[in-house]
Specification:
Elements (H helix, E strand, L loop, with lengths): L3 H15 L1 E3 H8 L3 H13 L3 E4 L2 E4 L8 H8 L2 H12 L7 E4 L3 H4 L12 E4 L2 H7 L6 E4 L3 E2 L6 E2 L2 H6 L4 E6 L3 E3 L3 E4 L5 H10 E7 L11 E4 L6 E5 L4 H8 L4 E5 L3 E5 L9 E7 L5 H17 L2 E7 L4 H13 L4 E4 L7 H10 L4 E4 L7 E4 L2 H19 L6 E6 L5 H18 L7 E5 L4 H14 L6 E5 L2 H13 L6 E7 L5 H6 L4 E6 L5 H13 L7 E3 L3 E4 L3 H4 L3
Parallel strand pairs: 4-5, 4-9, 5-6, 9-12, 12-14, 14-15, 17-18, 17-19, 19-20, 20-21, 21-27, 22-23, 22-24, 24-25, 25-26
Antiparallel strand pairs: 1-3, 2-3, 7-8, 10-11, 11-13, 15-16, 16-18, 26-28
Amino acid sequence: MMTTFERRQRILELLRGKASLRVTELTHLLDVSEGTIRNDLTALADSQKVKRVRGGAVLAETLQNEGSVFEARAQQQAQAKKRMAGWAADMVEDGDSIILDASTTVFYMAPFLQSRKGVTIFTNGLEVARVLAANPANTVILIGGVLRTDGSAVIGHLGEKLLEGMHIKTAFISCSGFSVAAGLTEVDLQDVPLKLEMIQRAGQVVALIDSSKFGRVGLTAFAGVDLISRIVTDHHIEESFVEEVRRTHTALTICGETTATSFAALNHQTRHHKIGFANLGEDVSFAVEVRHSLERAAKEAGNIDLIVADNQLDSKVALHVADRLLEKGVDLVIEYQIDEKIGSLLMNKFRQKNIPVIAVDIPLVGASYLGADNYRAGYMAGRALAEWISRQWQGRLDRLFVLAEPRAGALPAARMQGQLDGFQALLGEILPTRLTYLDSGNTLEISQRATAQALQSYGDDHRIGVICFNDEAALGALAAARQAGREEEVVIVGQGADRRVRPEIRRGDSPVIGSTAFMPEQYGEKLVALAQKILAGQVIPPATYIDHVFVDATNIDQFYPE
């Protein structure tokens, strides 16, 4: 295994080749936990070798080699543009087809798109094309035309021919100026024909417009506000412009330093609600999927202004985020944070303002709960493990490892008890002498070390079952079994059915036989429905649970097709 220094040097090498990488991608490439990668990126950022971005990092010198004219333009409102670009890039999914114009604001999307796969990108921007072409997993199509004098883009009518007949999902466009009356405007007439064609070929148009451009009208207009699906801007936008945009049918997202607010179009016949979402951490793939599902559900609801913030897996940050959401005047808060010990502090802040709270996965006293049914999720995995042992080992078991996480509190502990009960319901009570409790540390590395030591201690046991707090622990146990050459002596079940464990489950012959899925894609719809009921004064149950399913090689393609 690499040392910490070697691993961080490897991260820098990878970033030089791809410009930007997400935490989840680095964990896969380097076979370490997300927590380890986050620590590495923090250390590299402290030494000014990388810059942290939502969900990952870019090299600190990303813009150093750009042409002087383009770089000068890019540096104007740079921080605001980066936040806007990061939010916009999050709309792009693997396999999408998109258009990026040659603006400096859209250029900042490039590092955030490096982790995508199978994306087809049309652009007239030479700089954005050069950055994105470093990732062979995507296809970059440079739109032809006349080279602009600063060398940063191609313009004119020639590029229009390439786009004829194309059906592209999203166009990301910027402008020189914008007003509700004039729409998107430009000062250079040569930019207009190609931008018009880009808009006509796209299913939806996202306009990235920093606040300095609102109220400024260029020489010629190229798109009315009715052609724009969403406007993304920064938090310096004047309130009068916010109200103007909301009176149209165009969605509006304001990217602040610590929050991002997505407004629904104003409908005076429907009551609007402002909901704050304090997410667990943008470096956690499960939490990002929860946020995506919530954003989709809020958009479909049509009457929710959603304010998103990042708790960063940090108790102090979570308390700070709570203050920021209260300052925004939220009607309800959805709180997703890891440390049950600060629950009373958080709830005290919200109770003082009479703000109702929905707690996600980690309960808060006084809040409605939505999330995992931990005992049921555990029971399903324990039962599946017992069924496998009954078939493959004729019900014989030498030892059961319990990879737990004591710090997580009582409710997640029910996940472990559920696994034990599900196992014993089929195979009978396990003698205490055959049970070995291990601390997973909530990371792959700690789980691997703990399992490796246990395997060494119990070298005479040849039929070993492993139940786990989560899939990080399951992968750690798997790594230890492989390192010891004892894969055939170990069978493992996980919790989460996370992205990294699915290839093992899909193999069919892996020691990891399956994992209980927690379905983050279901959270958003349930959270919005629950929030709407609370805000309407309806009586709700104290807990709403996600539907779980145990995913194994026989059904994984049904729930997570490749």
